[in-house]
Amino acid sequence: MQTAWGTVLRQATPTAFVSLLLLPVLSFAAQNTAVRAPAISENQVVRTIYLHNIASQNDLNDIQTALRSMLRNAAFYGVASQNAIEFRGTPEDFQAAQKIVTDLDKPRKTYRLTYTITSSGYGKPSQSQTFTLLARLGETADMDLSSRVPYVTGSPNGEMPKGSVNYQWQYANIGLQIRATLQGSSGNLVLQDKIEQSGTIQPKSGSDAPAPTLNHAVLSNATAIAEGKAAVLGSIDVPGTSVHERIEVGVTPAP
Fold first, then answer.
1. Which H/E stretch holds residue 58?
2. Helix, strand, coil percentages, rounded to 5, for the chain
3. Domain positions in the chain
C-alpha cells in the first residue's frame, strides 16, 4: 500500500529531498541565534561600570554574581583587564547596579603586621629582631631582606680539585623573606604567610670547597589571629646549625 508521503519522496529530486531534511535544522538555528543575540530594545541602555578597589579576579566575580542575582532582567559582562563591568538593561536597572557596586566596591582596610623572630643557640643569650610590613586586606604583602650570594655547583671536568679556579657558580638569595596575605574581616582575621630563612655555613678548615654551603628553612601556615594580640606562628631549627628561631606576629589596624 502506497502512502501520499511515499509518492512525494519518489517524485522529489535529490536537491528537494536535501532541502526537506535541512528545513528543521535551519529553523532551529534561526531560533537559537535569536535567543543568544537578542536585539537591544528602545528602553535599554549599554553602560560601563568601573571598579576602583578590587584586588583579584575573585573580587570581580563576586560583584558580578551579586549584580546578576539582584537584577535578573539585566545583562552583565566583566572585563578584568579594565577592572570594569559592561551593563545592558533599563536605566532604572542601571541606577540600581551603580548603587550595588558602590556598596560593594569599598576601599580595603590596611593592617600593620609586626613579626618578632627570637633566635637562640651556640650558648649565647636569646636575641630578638622585629620586622614590620603593611598589608591590605585580601592582598599579598612581601618583605625581602635577602642578598645574592654565589655558590659552587661543580667544575667543567666533574671534579673539584683543591686550588682549582675553574669552578661553576650560581647565585642564591640569602637572608629573610616574608610573604603574608591577610583575609577575612575585622574580628575574624586569618593570616596566611610563608617565612623563608636562609644562610651560609662556612667550610671547615682545610676543606676543598672554595665557598660556604647553603642552608634553608621554611615556615608556612594559616593562622586565625585577633587584632591587638600576638600569635605564635611556630619555630624553625636552621639546618646545619644549632640556631633555633621562634616566630610570632601581631596585627594592628594601620592609621
1. helix 57-70
2. 25, 45, 30
3. 45-104, 110-253
Q: Which is it for the CA torsion 221, 111, 248, 188, positive or negative?
A: negative
- What predicted TM-score, i.e. pTM, was given to this entire model? 0.63
- Cα–Cα distance between 15 and 74 in angstroms, integer? 45
DSSP track, 193-232 = EEEEEEEEEPPPTT-S-SS-EEEEEEEEEEEEE-TT-EEE
Counting Cβ atoms within 10 Å, is residue 168 exposed (0-12), middle (13-18) or buried (19+)? Answer: exposed
Q: Which residues contact 33 (CB under 8 A, 6 or more apart)?
A: none
Q: How far apart are CA 219 and CA 192, in angstroms?
A: 11
Q: What three-state secondary structure class fits 126?
A: strand
Helices (H) and strands (E) in the chain, counts: 4, 13
Q: pLDDT, tens digit, for every residue of 162-215?
A: 555 566 778 888 889 999 999 988 888 999 999 998 877 666 555 555 556 678
Please provide the CATH number assigned to the domain covering 45-104. Answer: 3.30.1370.10
